[in-house]
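Researcher: Checking consistency across runs. Here is Permease of the drug/metabolite transporter (DMT) superfamily again:
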Amino acid sequence: MNQPTPISCQQQVIPHWRQKMPLPLLEAALILTWSSGFVGARFSMDYAPPLLVVFWRCVVVTLILFPFVARQLRQTSPAVLLKNAGIGLLAMAGYLAGVIQGIALGVPAGLAAVFANLLPMAVALLAAGVLGQKLAWQVWTGLGIGLVGVGVVTLGALAWGSAPLWAYGLPVLGTLSLAIATLWQKHLHASESLDLLPNLWLQCCVSSFAFALIEGTQGSLAPIPGMGFALSVLWTVGLSTLGGYGLYWVCLRRATATRVASVLYLSPPVTMLWAWAMFNEPLSWQMVSGMAVSGVGIWMVVRSEARQARR
């Protein structure tokens, strides 16, 4: 785990619970909360444009966290804030806008989910091709098996929609955006890395402007009165943003980018469990078998990287 590092003139203290909590438990919570975002997006579509919900999700998080982070942000240099803002734009605005806008333009949700779950492979390819990292063949094999498992889980949901051809590239670009942000955050110098809450605040703050620009050109940014819209925003604030993104960055400080991304191979089957519990969608042996295949792939990645860490 990274040691506590200075931010400006203030010493950053990594909370005790993050040091002591077992990494697999954090990763299990990450899978659960990350997959909640897809369920929240589906739920919100009945009440409001998806990007409007995402915009207000960022606004609410910004307002909630500001009293807790204002002092540390004032003591952080503009250069550090700018770098972390760039990571936030890529990780949140770039990823969510790419996937959600692709679906809004007619890309089938199942196909968009497959593109989004190329994240582990995208992180590994960028790490090897751009950063020159050498990954063991077991890691590549595990990533490949995990991707096959995702394909098995989502096979029944795959369809070619009526979206313009260029729109199919949006989820791919969104995934690539998050992969770049992941590696940038992982390799950011310790003195330039913000603590968790200031980091989340800054990401949501800059992303709210990006979503305002995108959604504002298509309609009003005013919240839609009604319980459905309010629940959609609160769901994505608590589970998807504070939970999903928060745990993603916490796990990234404890493990390699490839490992953290690879555990998200389990998000499609867990998303389907969410859908079964909330929308009474049927479960299938295909989903169970795909989850098992992805689990084998993740186990290979974790085991290989554990071996390398002991050398």
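Researcher: Does this match what you'd expect to see?
Model: One thing to look at in this run: Confidence is low (pLDDT under 50) at residues 1-13.
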